[in-house]
Design brief:
Blueprint: H1 3-17, E1 28-29, E2 34-37, E3 40-44, H2 57-70, H3 85-98, E4 102-106, H4 109-120, E5 126-130, H5 135-143, E6 147-151, H6 156-166, E7 173-178, H7 190-199, E8 203-207, H8 221-225, E9 231-235, E10 245-249, H9 251-260, H10 262-265, H11 272-287, H12 289-306, E11 315-321, H13 323-335, E12 338-339, E13 342-343, E14 351-356, H14 363-378
Parallel strand pairs: 3-12, 5-6, 5-7, 7-8, 8-9
Antiparallel strand pairs: 1-2, 2-3, 4-10, 9-10, 11-14, 13-14
Helix pairs in contact: 2-11, 3-11, 4-5, 12-14
This protein binds pyridoxal-5'-phosphate.
């Protein structure tokens, strides 16, 4: 064995011993939250396709037509020849929907945060991050080489204290947070964060990856709280049923991002079919308001059936602490026909099952899931 393989092998063995090794399972997702694994059928309760649009006929048709007409790949970065006209259409409609002047689409949500943060803060500056924010917010903060202060989750007093103590030592400051926390499903207290940012001349960045389509009449957490958020980040990969990410902001902020964000400049544009799918999904989301009500209603039906607190979003965590127990619970549910992946450290501090509910689930499927959970707890 080479020293490289020996290193990898030892590292894997140590992760395995703590139930922290991760493995890929081939999964064929189908319409209405169906999934196939090794030929067996399941109902999936752990995805982020909250409005069940990845198999919606309008979305699939738009994507297929774009591939037929425009080819499979963008072929170059957007600043070269990869800037397909569908991107301008998507950016205009996203900006209008999120209530911003302009929008820039990136290769993914992860790449958006990696690119945006270093455009606005650098080595002399300050970034204050909610500790439970998504990995790409932490990564973008580190990449900016700013002073990064992580404050305890949703702790507005800790944020205030941090700004009071450190803000004056730095020319510029970004406060960054998820809008909906991806593993817990709670909302960031944006009403209070926005006020603090204003008082301290800090720029608020909110990543609404899990909010679009389900919070604030689908428009996200800024709309829900009725506050201005100057840097609204999101993804095309969840409710918008495609792949990609975006920033919604003022025209001049977006102009600077298009000129300076390295993950925008040095990465290939999205395939036209991915852009067409996101655009079609955004239109369905806008045109079918009843679809937006369904995920939270189903999540609430589930929490009431199993005795968990009412959820704020379609994400319901069931914290089990021990990664081995979380894996066992996940396996038991899989045995009953439900896919609910165990989420373990370092993704989250405490292992859990993360249930998510989507427009395509039926009431009966949710009831059956709740029974399976209660049976596992009782066993
Ligand atoms: C999923 C997620 C991302 C990553 O988006 P991708 O488009 O999948 O790269 C970024 N931020 C948050 C909060 C997320 O939940």
């Amino acid at each position: 064995m080479s020293s490289l393989d020996r290193f990898a092998d030892a590292k894997l063995a140590s992760l395995e011993a703590r139930s922290l090794r991760r493995e890929l399972v081939s999964t064929h997702r189908m319409a209405e939250a169906g999934a196939l694994r090794a030929g067996a059928g399941f109902v999936e309760f752990c995805g982020n396709d909250y409005l069940s649009l990845t198999h919606h006929p309008r979305v699939v048709a738009a994507s297929a037509a774009a591939a037929e007409r425009y080819g499979t790949g963008a072929g170059a970065s957007r600043l070269v020849t990869g800037n397909h006209p569908l991107l301008a259409e998507l950016e205009a409609e996203l900006a209008a929907f999120r209530g911003s002047e302009d929008c820039v689409v990136f290769g993914s949500g992860y790449l958006t945060n990696l690119g945006v943060l270093p455009c606005f803060v650098g080595p002399d500056d300050l970034v204050v991050v909610d500790a439970w924010s998504h990995a790409c917010i932490h990564a973008g903060s580190s990449l900016s080489r700013s002073r990064v202060v992580r404050v305890p989750h949703a702790d507005v007093d800790a944020l205030a204290e941090t700004l009071e103590r450190h803000r004056a030592d730095h020319p510029r400051c970004v406060v960054a947070t998820d809008g909906v926390f991806s593993m817990d499903g709670d909302l960031a207290p944006l009403d209070r964060l926005a006020g603090l940012c204003e008082a301290h001349d800090a720029w608020l960045l909110v990543d609404d990856a899990h909010a679009l389509g389900v919070v604030g009449e689908g428009r996200g957490t800024a709309a829900h709280f009725g506050v201005e958020v100057p840097l609204q980040v999101g993804t095309l990969s969840k409710t918008l049923a495609s792949y990609g990410g975006y920033l919604c902001a003022s025209r001049t902020v977006c102009d600077l991002v298009r000129t300076r964000a390295r993950s925008f400049i040095y990465s290939t544009g999205l395939p036209p079919s991915a852009v067409a799918a996101a655009l079609a999904a955004l239109r369905v989301l806008r045109d079918e308001p009843a679809r937006r009500e369904r995920p939270l209603a189903l999540a609430t039906r589930f929490t009431r059936a199993v005795g968990l607190p009412d959820p704020q979003t379609p994400i319901v965590p069931w914290v089990l602490d021990d990664p081995g127990v979380a894996l066992a619970a996940s396996a038991a549910l899989e045995h009953r026909g439900f896919l609910v992946t165990a989420i373990r450290p370092p993704t989250v501090p405490t292992a859990r099952l993360r249930f998510t509910f989507a427009a395509g689930h039926t009431d009966a499927q949710v009831e059956a899931l709740a029974s399976a959970v209660l049976d596992w707890e009782g066993a």
